[in-house]
Amino acid sequence: MLPVVALVGRPNVGKSTLFNRLTRSRDALVADYAGLTRDRQYGFGKVGPHPYLLIDTGGLAGASDGIESLMERQAMLALEEADAVVFLVDARDGLVAHDYEITTLLRRHDKPVFLAVNKAEGLDQDTVAADFYALGIGQPLVISAAHGDRVSALIEEVLTACPTPEPEDGHASDELTVTVAGRPNVGKSTLINRLIGEQRLVAFDQPGTTRDAVRVPFKRDGRDYVLIDTAGVRRRARVDEAIEKFSIIKTLQAIEQSNVVIGVIDAREGVTDQDVSLFSLIIERGRALIVAINKWDGLDSDGRRAIRDGLERKLGFTDFAPVHYISALHGTAVGKLLPEVDKVFRAACRDLSTSALTEALEAAVTAHVPPMSRGRRPKLRYAHQGGRNPPVIVIHGNQVDRLADSYRRYLINFFRKRFKLKGTPIRLQLKSGKNPYEGRRNKLTPRQQAKRKRLLNYVKRDK
Asked: What is the C-alpha to C-alpha distance for residues 106 and 442, in angstroms, rounded to an integer?
């Protein structure tokens, strides 16, 4: 499981600023999907090779009723879920009475607490930290979330107190982990029961039946699978019980653990904003995706047309994912899902040779030259694979930072079609500078040298 870090503190001490700073600190990969959104209350961060989950809990204001009271209840549940806590205080305000109250609350939870003194830009660190020693929860760490000062050092120290997740390698294990995700009551448990052929999970016609991520191992045709049934991601206005709010954490962890995600949509309710947010997050995490439109049976032609229109308008960024129209209750088309799972996982883990990628890049550039940017045309020279699950394609050239987003999407679609990478996100990593394969010309076959020569001649002509 990924370590979970909760941000707590009074209102307006900079928790959301720190949250945004930390959730942006991911690998510098380009994932060009128009329309992606994120629930800003939950996010993924990464320090070097170590990912983690981050929760922005909202301000603890000591309210006894109203929406502030609900927020505080959610914050308390976040503390239960967290492996470590970052307690933010305000360097400009200094130590206030409410900071003592929050400190007393944190002591009851017996979790590692790191005191971060925020908004300290331009101030003397020792002077700022001095007052906060009085809280008695360790050495204050002086930071500026807005400017990024000492934020990396803070999160690195926090993660030393968290459990380290075991690395998972989709190539090293024959067990294929599939997360079934979607809003409440879309039929996730019913679908898993249908896939495994027995009533192993409770399936009830009421939202919120599943409140935790449930792992279901089984074997089919000699292949080991683990299906993860997740709690539904409910829209905020419908979260009457705070415990359901933080079941989202379990869903995010399940997505991170999985090789493939089956995203389930209720055909009778259509594509909602919650579906868009969830599917965006799945793609952001680089997971192979299958879209299952459940409860398709009994829908009239107008209803089916509305669903297809909704997929095109709201989920156009998932157009790489296969779509299956199913009935989990009656079994219609469910038998096609596991073969599709195997297929999209193979695509996600596909090995792509440097020569094949460079040849494809040459063909893409020949068919559609990169557009000019500020009077200069980016030159794309070579490509190689930089990662798998999802495939990462590294392109080397000049002026690549000026490459238009539309052209990046064109390249992604070109590579997808050329290498039949249906069902998996593809990420581009663009690098300027010297070709890393320079000097290896003599190791190329005559055919590879000829392809390389054609590419170089094209580049020279384009100059």
From this structure: 64
Report the top-level CATH class of 4-159.
Answer: alpha beta
Domain range annotation of the chain = 4-159, 176-345, 354-462
pLDDT means per 10 residues in the chain (463 residues)? 87 86 55 41 77 78 49 69 92 92 88 94 91 93 93 93 63 77 90 84 46 76 89 50 55 89 95 90 93 94 94 94 96 96 96 96 95 87 95 93 91 96 95 62 67 65 53
CATH domain 176-345 topology: Rossmann fold (3.40.50)
Alpha carbons 1 and 47: distance in angstroms, whole number: 16
Task: Give me the sheet containing 84-90, strands edge to edge.
Answer: 42-47, 50-56, 4-9, 84-90, 113-118, 141-142
| CA atoms 454, 459, 462, 463: torsion sign | negative
The answer, as to whether pTM is greater than 0.85, is no
Task: At 178, list the tokens.
Answer: 């599939």
Domain 354-462 has CATH 1.20.120.450: no
Amino acid identity of residue 420, one-letter, is K
- 113-118 and 84-90: which strand pairing? parallel
Instruction: Name residues whose C-beta falls within 8 Å of residue 399's C-beta, 6 or more positions apart in sequence.
Output: 373, 376, 377, 378, 379, 432
Tell how strand 223-229 and strand 214-220 pair up.
antiparallel
169, β-bridge pairs: none
Q: What CA–CA distance (Å, rounded) separates 18 from 344?
A: 36
Strand partners, 354: none
Per CATH, 4-159 and 176-345 having the same topology is answered yes
Contact 72, 61 (CB under 8 A): yes
Residue 267: count other Cβ atoms within 10 Å of its Cβ: 24
